[in-house]
Amino acid sequence: MKKNINSDIQKGYTQIGIHRDDFEVYINDNPISIYGSQGQKRTTIISLKLAEAKVIYDEIGERPVILLDDFMSELDKKRIQGLLENIKENQVIITCTDSFKINNSKYKLYKVTNAKIECI
Length: 120
Description:
This protein is α+β, with helices and mostly antiparallel strands and 120 residues long. Helix content is 37%, strand content 17%. The strands form 3 sheets. The protein has a two-stranded antiparallel ribbon with strand order 1-2.
């Protein structure tokens, strides 16, 4: 990274680092990026984020805030319920365009319409 610092400054971004590493997930020897459904791809990303949150908790003893932006658009009801079951111990902010119900959980629901926020 030190070798590329001048070039990175010129280009305005880093060319080498962990963010540049390719990470591929497979189901039955098939890469999800090619053969997975949109729901499988989204579930994989969310699973990795939840695993990352667990690692952070294990390391520092505090749970990070998880932001899920429009995560439900490509998930079926079974996957949504599974996700909601696995985030119970975390502080989570979910944005979405569809309404949904979270059973047996403490939550606050806000509706934003025409730049006005309403607690439902």
